[in-house]
């Protein structure tokens, strides 16, 4: 960050924290997501913070920083293991984009390392049990919540709402997707009866959970949260496409599904399986959108381009899942 | 036949070997991911260039069932090929063949487990 915005940031943090002597001792860009930038801030007094702000090209489906800050506060209050949210700045004049500051938490999120480790998170069994407990805490957050009003009206039927939203996404895309339609039609034919919606993280998977050797240190990346069926989060975590090659460990490539369910509490496995198929369809559609940013020229980028080539493999999995579910 | 060999596929494969075997080990660790992405892109492009034509057959079968791809997708959405319908098996086989051909370029490992 240049000197001028950094000076403005220092002034802003002094006001927000009430510490007129506050100094940013060090500021470094962390490896962030495709949508956000995360900066590590070392602040006087031994304070270790993270500043989270928007990247230039932002996906339309993700919440902005102010909303993510509200979600983080709600989760923190519900006892979810998240970095404590400290300050929100919506004034773009300070750094050029809205940002918020949270406490910095130690740990590893890198998915390919996590699925290979037998010890991270306290060991495979303990880790997925802890992840189940985190999800159960997230799902204690229920509507109505004025502080989360940006999430919109909770759907009467989260299953049909998912199908409607996915079809709308397909209708916005460049090419028809018969296999994704095939999967969505199957989901429509097999949708379970609705359940009352709760706060669903909606990207709760290996790679978005920070771990150390003793357990979960932070649940990250709240920008896709919705009111929906709590089983949606369990399905997203267990979906084969999010096991990072470690297919035998059905909970995120980390540990056994049974341990995740035990950590969570009351689980309807049929509903989770519905959401696992849904997860493949949703991820395929997101991959199409990411590749479109490259194809359209909005953001020419090799990683986005290659993400598009994940779609056929996801489609193959969707066909096999539909086939097996129809035969059952 | 009038082009100068070695042709594009050979060049892609040979260049990819140089990238993976000579350049990648010499790169700083923070550039390894980008190098692997380049190798992956070259592999996909190579498989695409080597693949035989399958689209005419798939499009013809699609047309016989419902019309253009967009009409086929729309017909699936309305339930015209649901299990129990007359054309269910044909539609399922068509989707399988199409996806197998797409995976052969983009994700051959997906087929290995299928």
Automatic annotation (TrEMBL), chain A:
Q: Which Pfam families match?
A: APH
Identify the domain of life. Bacteria
Domain Aminoglycoside phosphotransferase residue range list: 29-273
Matching InterPro entries, A to Z? Answer: ACAD10_11_N, AGP_Transferase, Aminoglycoside_PTrfase, Kinase-like_dom_sf
Q: Where does the secretion signal sit in this chain?
A: none
Name the record gives this protein = Phosphotransferase family protein
Species assigned in the record: Neoroseomonas soli
């Amino acid at each position: 960050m240049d000197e001028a915005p950094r000076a403005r940031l220092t002034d802003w943090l002094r006001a927000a924290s009430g510490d007129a002597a506050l100094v940013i001792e060090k500021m470094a860009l962390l490896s962030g997501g495709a949508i956000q930038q995360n900066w590590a801030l070392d602040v006087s007094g031994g304070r270790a913070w993270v500043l989270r702000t928007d990247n230039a090209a932002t996906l339309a489906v993700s919440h902005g920083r102010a909303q993510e800050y509200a979600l983080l506060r709600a989760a923190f209050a519900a006892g979810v293991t998240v970095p404590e949210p400290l300050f929100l700045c919506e004034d773009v004049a300070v750094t050029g984009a809205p940002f918020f500051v949270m406490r910095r938490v130690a740990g590893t999120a890198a998915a390919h390392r996590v699925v290979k480790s037998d010890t991270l998170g306290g060991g495979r069994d303990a880790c997925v049990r802890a992840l189940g407990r985190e999800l159960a805490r997230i799902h204690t957050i229920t509507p109505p919540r004025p502080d989360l009003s940006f999430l919109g009206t909770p759907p009467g039927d989260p299953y049909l709402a998912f199908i409607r939203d996915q079809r709308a996404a397909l209708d916005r895309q460049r090419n028809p997707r018969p296999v994704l339609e095939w999967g969505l039609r199957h989901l429509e034919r097999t949708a379970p009866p609705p359940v009352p919606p709760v706060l669903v993280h909606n990207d709760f998977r290996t790679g978005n959970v920070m771990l150390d050797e003793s357990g979960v240190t932070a649940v990250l990346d709240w920008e896709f949260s919705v009111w929906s069926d709590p089983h949606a989060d369990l399905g997203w975590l267990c979906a084969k496409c999010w096991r990072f090659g470690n297919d035998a460990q059905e909970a995120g490539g980390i540990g056994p599904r049974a341990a995740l369910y035990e950590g969570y509490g009351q689980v309807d496995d049929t509903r989770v399986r519905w959401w696992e198929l849904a997860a493949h369809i949703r991820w395929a559609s997101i991959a199409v959108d990411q590749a479109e940013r490259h194809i359209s020229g909005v953001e020419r980028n090799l990683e986005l381009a290659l993400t598009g080539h994940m779609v056929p493999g996801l489609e193959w999995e969707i066909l096999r899942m539909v086939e097996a579910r129809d035969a059952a | 036949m009038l082009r100068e060999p070695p042709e594009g596929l050979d060049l892609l494969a040979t260049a990819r070997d140089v990238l993976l075997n000579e350049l990648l080990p010499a790169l700083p660790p923070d550039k390894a991911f980008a190098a692997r992405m380049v190798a992956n892109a070259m592999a996909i492009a190579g498989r695409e260039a080597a693949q035989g034509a399958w689209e005419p057959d798939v499009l013809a079968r699609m047309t016989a069932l419902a019309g253009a791809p967009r009409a086929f997708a729309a017909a699936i959405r309305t339930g015209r090929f649901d299990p129990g319908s007359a054309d269910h098996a044909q539609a399922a086989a068509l989707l399988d063949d199409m996806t197998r051909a797409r995976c052969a370029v983009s994700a051959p490992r997906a087929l290995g487990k299928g």
